[in-house]
Design brief:
By secondary structure, this protein is an all-alpha fold. It contains nine helices and no strands. It has a single domain, classed as MFS general substrate transporter like domains (Growth Hormone, Chain: A), CATH 1.20.1250.20.
């Protein structure tokens, strides 16, 4: 807890990462409902997951290139913004459901690769900065809290979806029973898959804005003298 209190960079980065884990966890939890009640296709579940995850696997190296050119923090901000815009555009499926949804989901998947890889690359910078300013010995604490934060964020995604569905009147189905969802519930499903994740990412950008480290801070030599790489 002392390490957390003294490290403003870690608090800002962790807060950003947890909010983004909540946003992506919410989308992953909502894919089944979008496929069933919006697209009316059970096969769409796998397609939505593939559209989100496959581009993320392929795009991770590209985000490394962007980070080397623009800096990790700026690249992270770009990835987060792209994800938010892509998620928000999915709202259109409420009025025009169709296969076009896989395009913005795929774009979100590309951005998701940056949202996963870039903060993981920034975490060692935070730990190194803390070691220079406060001494070694907190790396394990930082890593443990980071992992716990990610787990909690993803878990709360499913909880948030349950709350949204309950508030919008979602009707649970049982075997052999035909259920018709009210319009409000369908709207809640789409909103939980688009607007709410986009809002969470926007909020995470506010916490990321408080991240104070830049390349010149990260590249300090061991004796604390700034390097001249800019």
């Amino acid at each position: 807890m002392r390490a957390l209190r003294r490290s403003a960079p870690f608090r800002a980065l962790l807060g950003t990462f947890v909010l983004q884990a909540l946003a992506t966890g919410l989308m992953l939890a909502g894919a089944q409902y979008v496929a069933t009640w919006v697209l009316h296709s059970e096969a769409a579940v796998e397609l939505l997951f593939v559209a989100l995850i496959a581009p993320a696997l392929l795009a991770a190296p590209a985000w490394g290139v962007v980070a080397r050119r623009l800096g990790k923090e700026r690249a992270f901000r770009i990835a987060s913004t792209v994800f938010a815009v892509a998620a928000l555009s999915i709202l259109g499926v409420l009025w025009a459901p169709g296969d076009w949804i896989y395009v913005p989901v795929g774009v979100a998947g590309i951005a998701y690769a940056g949202m996963q890889s870039l903060p993981m690359a920034m975490l060692p910078d935070v730990i190194s900065h803390d070691e220079r300013t406060s001494g070694p010995g907190s790396a394990g604490a930082f890593s443990g809290v980071w992992t716990a934060g990610e787990t909690v964020g993803f878990a709360l995604g499913a909880t948030a979806l349950s709350i949204i569905l309950a508030l919008t009147g979602y009707v649970s189905s049982v075997a052999g029973q035909v259920v018709t969802q009210p319009d409000a519930a369908v709207t809640g499903i789409v909103v939980s898959f688009s607007v709410v994740p986009a809002a969470l990412i926007a909020l995470s950008l506010a916490t990321l804005a408080r991240y104070p480290l830049r390349r010149r801070d990260v590249d300090l030599p061991a004796d604390g003298i700034r390097s001249h790489d800019g």
